Amino acid sequence: MINNKKLVSMIFLVLLCLTACAPNEESISIKERKKTDKSVTFLFNFTSATLDPHTDDNYTAVRAGVGETLVKISNDLKIKPWLAEKWETKDNGLTWTFTIRKNITFQNGKALDANAVKSSLQRTIDQSYAMKNALNIKEMKANGHALTITLKEPMPKFPSELVHPNTAIIDVDVSSIAKKPIGTGPFHVLTFDQGNQVKLERYEHYWNGKVKLKNAIFAFNEDANARVAALQSGTADIIYRPPLESLSTLQANSSFKVSGVPSVRTHLLLYNQTNDALKDETVRKAIDTLLNRKEIVSSIMNNQAAAARGPFLPQFPFADNTASETKGIAYAKKYLEKAGYQLKNGKVIKNGKPLSLSLVTYSSLPELPLIAQLIQSNAKELGISIKIHLVEDSDEYVMAKDDWDLALYSLITAPRGDASYYLSTNYLPGGGLNASRINDDTLTKMIEQLNSTVDDAKRDQLAKQATALINGEMLTSSIVHPNIVVAYNQKVKNWTTNPSEYYMLTQHLDVTP
């Protein structure tokens, strides 16, 4: 016979089994929810110390789909409305009125209107010296969904400045913008692990249509090989800029897709003109001859780039493509002799002092240190000593310090399909990115005239003239235009590689189950 204690135990086990095995509404809903809760992990090549879109040089908030700007740039590099549905100007670009879209909310439910946009743009100006100079705003007035902006001087292409991710519109009244900005984009921030990753969740009330992913992770890793390993192991679904030597392996694997498109980025060699030697354009030209661009394209860039003849892609109507490339030790020697240098005992010397230079660069773009080593090797053969320094925050370093002579750098030179931004920020005295400390009166007048010119054909001609001067005086050496290369798992759908490099996690991004 079974005693009462055993009988109770058996009944309990049967009930437990029935409860566990029988389908119920909660278990089914969890299972179905998992099928529809799609997510991706995106691995980027630059780390971010902040998510504040007004100060972050890596533009993470916009790239991760948290923040949006009034104006955006399309894949064919044309500006088009985004949070602003339209705009108009009078006085040849002195006063602009932007109509803000209705029925948009921030990710905390707060309504977007012209006053919120005004507050956000004002914070941008207050937080960013570069954006203060670029926007050149004198006054803003908000009335419902109309924002009127008066500039300090006419800017015919002012809306293109509002493409910049540092002008992303956020709720300025939240307490921790650096860790959790509140924007209008398809994803809102769950957590931010500084320098590691951002965890994101779909904003259910996104204004511009359904967001396909439930969750996303925007992660950072500056080690290119580690990014490839993450893709191969399945811990990342999309990786930005894999090492170029890995492309053939990834392309041979049917589990992955590789996308490469021409970018509006240019790898540049900057010359610090606080260095007495580099104030002489013949010395700069001598160093430029050490850049064998075709060799860099083939041996370092794995043919995922084009040799640059200026800062802008040649297909732009404002690009000057007349520069001719001279290269090699023989040309360099002639330039140095013209500058008063002599070659003695294997060293380039002037007034008894050998020419020795420092070069700073960074490893987030893995090809840059390799190009630096090529420059160093060629310079050594000529008799110039170059010492390479790898730095973490190159933007801050070259702008804040004068203890460098050369900087191997990479910039998005025409992110709005226009030359004005790059020329103004990099070559005007006090420009937000004028790391070389360039102050050329002729060039300054050209750029200022460009900035006040309305007619597109005249603007293109002025930009060409300015670029020809930059190339002629070798104020900057443009090296190559790299492709944007992205590798991703074949289950990822609707990935688009935007030439501007601004928009990455979008509402359309999807994955198959």
UniProtKB/TrEMBL annotation:
GO terms (BP aspect): peptide transport
- Write the signal peptide boundaries: 1-22
Q: Domain named Solute-binding protein family: which ranges?
A: 78-431
From the UniProt record, which GO molecular function terms apply? peptide transmembrane transporter activity
**What are the record's GO terms for cellular component?**
ATP-binding cassette (ABC) transporter complex; periplasmic space
Q: Keyword annotations for this protein?
A: Signal, Transport
Q: Which Gene3D superfamilies match?
A: Dipeptide-binding Protein, Domain 3, Periplasmic binding protein-like II
Mind telling me which InterPro entries this protein's record contains? Answer: NikA, Peptide/Ni-bd, SBP_5, SBP_5_dom
Similarity comment: family membership = Belongs to the bacterial solute-binding protein 5 family.
Q: NCBIfam families, from UniProt?
A: Opp5A_nikA
Protein name per UniProt: Peptide/nickel transport system substrate-binding protein
Source species taxonomy: Bacteria, Bacillati, Bacillota, Bacilli, Bacillales
